[in-house]
Design brief:
Strand content: 15-25%
Number of helices: 10
Strand order of the largest sheet: 3-4-7-8-9-10-11-12
Largest sheet: 8 strands, mixed
CATH architecture: Alpha-Beta Horseshoe
CATH class: Alpha Beta
Distance between the termini: 44 Å
Order of helices and strands: EEEEEHEHEHHEHEHHEHEHHE
Number of domains: 1
CATH topology: pyruvate-formate lyase- activating enzyme
Helix content: 25-40%
Bound molecules: iron/sulfur cluster
Structural class: alpha/beta
Radius of gyration: 18 Å
Shape: globular
CATH superfamily: pyruvate-formate lyase- activating enzyme
């Protein structure tokens, strides 16, 4: 049975799911599984590729305003007989496991507790939210875990155009620092890299978090689709800031002086464990 409720600007649907683990493919095909506790994402980034996998045109058009909670996610995991020891899991590929609803529901947290206690996979968490620091006590129970924090720019004006309801860049960087101080392995994914105000200072700021790894990727505005109603503002900003492939290359070159091991593109997402 599906239950629907409205929280702020978000329509929240609680519905059972057939599965919780999906065999990985494509961009993150180097992982064994992806795990998405939610469908949809109320962070609603204007460039989100996941929006284009939504099942209906209405869901695509309303991306950012709805989330589906896989209410039986924990039960599905508990029913799994084969342990996931040593298997690599990417959490999450088409949602943010720490989007706002997670604060109240604690579904991601419950899944992590189950994974840590009974499976011990090699886990990578991908998020844009400092809420991940709430679960430091569970994350430190994993033998192999990496938290990827996406930080796409040093400019809050840019962030507000592309990631209007995401936490600020400063809060994300603070979160990485806290995770690092707790002894957790972290990676800052500047994917996609959006217009940057001061590449040198930006590189110094991400380095100062103590993160173990840094990944960058160009955003091909002309080849990308934008979530409904957001494309013009995004394209205008690219033009205004002259954000081209050449500008991106120049910014990366400057950042590399501070971050010599800066990974680029898909290769940066492949898990490397000690
Ligand atoms: S946080 Fe990730 S999944 Fe959510 S809208 Fe942004 S890009 Fe998409």
């Amino acid at each position: 049975m599906t239950t629907i409720t409205q929280i702020g600007h978000s329509r929240v649907e609680f519905k059972p799911s057939k599965s919780i683990l999906t065999r990985s493919s494509g961009y993150i095909g180097t992982f064994d599984y992806t795990l998405n506790p939610y469908g949809g994402c109320t962070f609603g980034c204007t460039y989100c590729y996941a929006a284009f996998f939504a099942r209906t045109e209405t869901l695509k058009a309303e991306w950012g305003n709805w989330v589906q909670v896989k209410e039986n996610a924990l039960d599905l995991l508990k029913k799994r007989r084969r342990p996931l020891n040593g298997q690599t899991i990417y959490m999450s590929s088409v949602t943010d496991p720490y989007q706002p609803i997670e604060k109240e529901l604690e579904l991601t947290r419950a899944i992590l507790e189950e994974l840590a206690a009974y499976h011990q996979p090699r886990l990578v968490i991908q998020t844009r939210s400092p809420l991940v620091t709430r679960d430091i006590d569970v994350l430190t129970q994993f033998q192999h875990v990496q938290i990827n924090m996406t930080v796409t720019t040093d400019d809050e004006a840019v962030r507000r155009v592309f990631e209007p309801t995401c936490p600020s860049n400063a809060r994300r960087l603070e979160a990485v620092q806290r995770l690092h101080q707790a002894g957790l392995r972290t990676c800052i994914t500047m994917t996609p890299l959006l217009p940057v105000r001061d590449p040198q200072q930006f590189a110094e700021a991400v380095l100062a978090t103590g993160a173990d790894k840094f990944v960058v990727q160009h955003f091909h505005a002309s080849e990308r689709r934008f979530v409904a109603g957001t494309g013009n503002a995004a394209l205008d900003l690219f033009e205004e800031r002259r954000w081209t492939a050449e500008t991106y290359a120049r910014v990366v070159m400057i950042m590399r002086q501070t971050l010599p091991d800066l990974w680029e593109g898909q290769a940066g997402f492949a898990p490397v464990w000690d």
